[in-house]
Design a protein that fits this description.
The complex is a heterodimer of chains A (266) and B (220).
Chain A (H helix, E strand, L loop, with lengths): L1 H12 L17 H26 L5 H33 L5 H32 L3 H31 L2 H5 L34 H24 L20 H12 L4
Chain B lengths: L1 H12 L16 H17 L10 H32 L6 H32 L3 H33 L2 H23 L22 H10 L1
Helix pairs in contact in B: 2-3, 2-4, 3-6, 4-5, 5-6
The chains are: A mainly alpha (266), B mainly alpha (220).
């Protein structure tokens, strides 16, 4: 467990994705550890998400809390399962040199970044849950928090991809090159963060870059709809507990409806 | 198994045995085998629409048989014409490679379809609309066809440098294949299976022409 969090810390600091560590057939993110981390951290955010039903239903609804804890990691991992095969096949088609396992590791890494950011925002969510009873507000807040986490993860993914696309030989020399960033507290040359643009970092991956961009959009769409299928996460205070709701409608119409309800448009 | 999947990976990347320039050292049945397996995989997912009763399992099975059947029977129907055209254009000596290029295109189509299968299943989870399911499948087939074309062009590019008439043969193949393919798809329907109609291998209707149906739909 301790080593897991050490590895997570390394991922967040960018040590795992530092240029020398990466190549097309080697991404140093062991799947078992990072999938477990995704589950744990996703569950942590789900835990905060489930507070609302616990506090606003009478009697307190612990089943909804449990459901949110299970469903949140499931949301991320199921979306990955649905979208990964097409990403891999199209990447191979356009000639991206990344192997299947390293693509998967990289994406699991991005999911871990996503849920870590979300989990770190969890206490904020918990605080708002304690102080508000408005259901539409909770929904919009959750969408915003998850969107923030999603964009950070997206940045991580795209930057790491650019590093992968570059052959490692240039990067191994990088820590030794004198730079203006060398004057940190330790006085040693600083490791570039995972979201940092490195000088000379290529701006694109060629055709694989557009495949990834399309895929990111697809992941977002599937993820949003997956969330809709797995609902309720928060649990409306007026409805009884259910594992899954009736399968109708879609995420986007519902999000717009809640938003307009919140700003009083209807 | 892993070995087979590694070969699929090689095929997608156009590397190793499947390099367009390398002469075909692999056994000839590799490409048809890939078509068979991956198209059947997609077919299974395609037929899983409205999977609420056990009777619908037949639709899964039928579609798993019908999608590879669609691809291979269309090919079979178009092959004689393709052969004659190639001969007339004086490309007979390269016929083996031409054949490989068109089969490679369809193998690529099948693999991409199989990779899109989870998306189709996910769509079925999200929407119960039969019309929506048909449109989504049409979209998936369009994407896969484009990818297949990409792969077959890879092989044809090598052939065209050898003789420019190969380009004509390639276009002739594309036109006849899509013309026949659409009608074949119509004849072999249903693939998705309307929830209002009992499951059957073929529709219990006399043969009709897809193009006339389309024209009638437009004119009304």
């Amino acid at each position: 467990m301790g080593t897991w969090f050490k590895q997570l810390d390394e991922l967040l600091r960018g040590k795992r994705t530092e240029p020398g560590q990466l190549s097309e057939d080697r991404v140093n993110l062991p799947l078992r550890t990072f999938v477990s981390l995704a589950v744990i951290l996703g569950a942590l955010y789900g835990f905060f998400m489930g507070w609302y039903a616990m506090l606003n239903r009478d009697p307190a609804d612990y089943m909804q809390l449990l459901a949110a804890v299970i469903k949140l990691p499931a949301l991320f991992l199921l979306t990955l399962i649905v979208t990964f095969p097409s990403l891999y096949v199209f990447n191979a088609l356009v000639g991206c040199r990344m192997t299947m396992t390293s693509t998967l590791r990289l994406l699991v890494g991005a999911v871990v970044v996503n849920v870590t950011v979300a989990a770190s925002l969890g206490p904020i969510l918990g605080f708002f849950t304690l102080s508000t009873t408005s259901y539409p507000f909770m929904i919009v807040l959750n969408i915003i928090l998850l969107a923030v986490a999603g964009f950070v993860a997206l940045g991580f993914l795209l930057h790491t991809l650019r590093r992968v696309s570059q052959r490692p030989f240039k990067w191994t020399e990088l820590p030794n090159t004198p730079s203006t960033e060398g004057e940190t507290e330790e006085g040693t040359s600083r490791l570039p963060g995972p979201l940092e643009q490195i000088e000379g970092e290529p701006s694109g991956l060629g055709p694989a870059n557009s495949v990834f961009k399309i895929w990111v959009l697809l992941y977002g769409l599937v993820g949003a709809q997956m969330g809709w299928l797995l609902r309720p996460f928060i649990g409306s205070p007026d409805l009884p507990f259910e594992w899954f709701r009736q399968r109708d409608g879609n995420f986007f119409s519902a999000a717009v409806e809640h938003l307009s309800h919140l700003i009083g448009a209807n | 198994m892993t070995d087979a999947l590694l070969r699929v990976d090689q095929f997608l990347r156009g590397a190793g045995d499947f390099h367009p320039v390398a002469p075909a050292r692999r056994p000839w049945w590799w490409l048809p085998l890939m078509i068979l397996c991956f198209a059947a995989l997609y077919g299974g997912f395609m037929g899983s629409f409205h999977f609420v009763t056990t009777a619908r399992i037949w639709q899964v099975l039928y579609s798993a048989i019908k999608v590879p059947l669609l691809l291979l029977s269309t090919t079979l129907l178009c092959l004689p014409g393709f052969f004659v055209i190639n001969t007339l254009l004086g490309l007979r000596d390269d016929f083996r490679e031409s054949l490989q290029a068109i089969f490679a295109g369809q193998a690529g189509l099948s693999i991409v379809l199989a990779a899109l299968a989870p998306m189709t299943r996910f769509w079925y989870f999200s929407s119960e609309s039969y019309r929506g399911a048909l449109l989504f499948n049409a979209a998936m087939f369009t994407v896969a066809t484009l990818a297949g074309h990409l792969i077959s062009s890879r092989y044809y590019r090598v052939l065209i440098t050898r003789h420019r008439f190969h380009r004509v043969a390639h276009y002739a193949w594309l036109v006849t294949y899509s013309l026949v393919g659409i009608q074949m798809g119509w004849t072999l329907r249903p693939f998705v299976g309307s929830p209002d109609v009992p499951t059957s291998f073929f529709r219990d209707e006399p043969f009709s022409n897809a193009y006339i149906v389309i024209v009638e739909l437009i004119i009304g």
